[in-house]
Design brief:
The protein is mainly β and 240 residues long. It is built from no helices and 16 strands. 0% of the residues lie in helices and 75% in strands. The radius of gyration is 19 Å and the shape is globular. Belongs to the attacin/sarcotoxin-2 family.
Length: 240
């Protein structure tokens, strides 16, 4: 399915950090468009954001998030984070999701994080751990490996891991990139393979145009026979 995306943003440099206002639009060939807006404040020791998106005919999602640095001794850094999301569908009850996390990053690109979140409407709590290892890096190229595992607790009690993912990703300083991943979901007895890529078509100081494409294939008792293919163009503009 082809999707056309666009976004604009404006960043103000203030003594305490960077303040960015932004807006976005996503228009798929099939399905309703989604409009979004948000504001982000980012500094070395802390940050906060408020973002909302509305899918016409479906509903609105609003997320408030914050981050605090608890340890920073180059090359090591530890940050704590929290968020709250309100989902307001056009039809159906509202849903609240609240989460907290702790993440470690290394200046060479390695990192590991753990998170917990609770969704009120599902009466479900999700635990997740993910990690990233930089395999190779120079001035223009970066190759990373990543892995994640999640498990859920709900009305039926603790479950076995609800999903695990391993992947490999390459990025170029000019905006190109490609990644591959394998995801397994025990509850569905399903394994998903995915490959996605991005090519920067045009870039200057204020504008960027990228082409994106992805293909996914699922294997399992209820998996579709054919792979899913998607692609689109993304235009980004920085306002004066």
């Amino acid at each position: 399915m082809e999707t056309r995306n666009g976004s604009v943003s404006k960043t103000f440099l203030i003594p305490q950090g960077n303040l960015t206002f932004g807006g976005s639009a996503s228009v798929p060939v099939f399905g309703p468009p989604t409009l979004g807006a948000g504001v982000t404040f980012d500094a070395n020791k802390f940050g906060a954001s408020l973002n909302t998106s509305h899918t016409i005919g479906v509903g609105t999602t609003t997320t408030a998030a914050g981050r605090v640095n608890v340890f920073d001794s180059r090359p090591h850094r530890i940050d704590a984070s929290a968020f709250h999301t309100l989902n307001t569908p056009n039809h159906g009850p509202m849903s609240h999701t609240t989460g907290v996390g702790l993440g470690y990053t290394h200046v060479h690109g390695h990192g590991v994080s753990a998170s917990v979140q609770h969704t009120s409407s599902l009466k479900q709590t999700d635990l997740g751990v993910k990690g990233n290892v930089n395999i190779y890096r120079d001035e223009k190229n970066s190759l990373d490996a990543n892995a994640a595992i999640n498990t859920s607790f709900g009305p039926s009690g603790p479950s076995k891991p609800s999903g695990s993912v391993v992947g490999l990703g390459y990025t170029h300083a000019h905006g190109h990139g490609v990644s591959a991943s394998v995801k397994h979901t025990p509850s569905l007895n399903q394994t998903d393979l995915g490959v996605e890529g991005k090519v920067n078509i045009y870039r200057d100081e204020k504008n960027s145009l990228d082409a994106q494409a992805a293909i996914n294939k699922s294997f399992g008792p209820s998996a579709p026979d054919k792979p899913t293919v998607s692609g689109g163009l993304v235009f980004t503009k920085k306002l004066d």
